[in-house]
């Protein structure tokens, strides 16, 4: 298991930034960031081991993890390799829309094949990572579901041939 965390760290490890704390929560301190890093390395790491690494008791770590979870700062999930669970085609789909991209982004998030949807600045209005069983499934998702959404002007698909790097260390690594 790995955790996905929404946190940030400045160049000074003892200093926290609140640039991403748009949910009204106070900025994360260095200890909370260190706990998140420990869980990003191993989401099943025991609280006692995390406590040793960050200088807190097991109970204090447990409380902090619960608070981080309750605040929506992080969640702990199992991350799979799609190839090992029957999904043999991954693609990034660049999407251009007419007008406001928000309704199209919302519709994309409802697709079970869409693992990742972001609004972007650049060549595309939206990017969606889709995970499909095979090429036929990918064709159906792109042609009949994504291109059929109201407001979609064009799409461009980038088929993933080989995964070279995938991390879940967002938000805590040194800049």
Topology at a glance:
Layout: E1 2-5, H1 30-41, H2 47-54, H3 58-70, E2 74-77, E3 89-97, H4 102-109, E4 114-119, E5 126-132, H5 135-146, E6 152-160
Antiparallel strand pairs: 1-2, 3-5, 3-6, 4-5
Helix pairs in contact: 1-2, 2-3
Kindly list the characteristics that best describe this protein.
single chain, disordered N terminus, 5 helices, 6 strands, alpha+beta, 175 residues, elongated
Short description:
Helix content is about 30%, strand content about 20%. It is α+β, with helices and mostly antiparallel strands.
Describe what you observe in this structure.
The protein has helices at 30-41, 47-54, 58-70, 102-109, 135-146, and strands spanning 2-5, 74-77, 89-97, 114-119, 126-132, 152-160. By secondary structure, the chain is an alpha+beta fold. β4 and β5 (126-132) form a beta hairpin. α1 crosses α2 (47-54). The relative contact order is 0.18. The model is unreliable at 1-20 (pLDDT under 50).
In oligomeric terms, what are we looking at?
A: single chain
Shape: elongated
Order of helices and strands: EHHHEEHEEHE
Strand order of the largest sheet: 4-5-3-6
Which class best fits the helix and strand makeup?
A: alpha+beta
Cα-atom Rg, whole angstroms? 19 Å
Say how many strands there are: 6
| Major sheet size, sense and barrel closure | 4 strands, antiparallel
Distance between the termini: 25 Å
Strand content: 15-25%
Mean pLDDT: 84
């Amino acid at each position: 298991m790995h955790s996905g965390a929404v946190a940030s760290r400045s160049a000074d490890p003892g200093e926290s930034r609140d640039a991403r704390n748009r949910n009204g929560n106070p900025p994360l301190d260095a200890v909370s960031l260190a706990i998140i890093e420990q869980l990003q390395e191993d989401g099943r790491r025991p609280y006692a081991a995390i406590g040793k690494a960050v200088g807190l008791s097991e109970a204090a770590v447990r409380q902090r993890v619960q608070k981080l979870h309750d605040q929506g700062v992080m969640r702990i999930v199992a991350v799979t390799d799609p190839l090992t669970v029957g999904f043999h085609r991954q693609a990034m789909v660049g999407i251009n829309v007419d007008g406001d991209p928000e309704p199209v982004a919302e519709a994309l998030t409802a697709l079970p094949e869409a693992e990742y949807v972001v609004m972007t600045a650049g060549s595309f209005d939206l990017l969606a990572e889709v995970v499909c069983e095979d090429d036929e499934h990918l064709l159906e998702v792109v042609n009949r579901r994504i291109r059929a959404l109201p407001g979609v002007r064009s799409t461009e698909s980038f088929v993933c041939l080989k995964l070279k790097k995938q991390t879940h260390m967002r938000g805590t690594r040194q800049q």
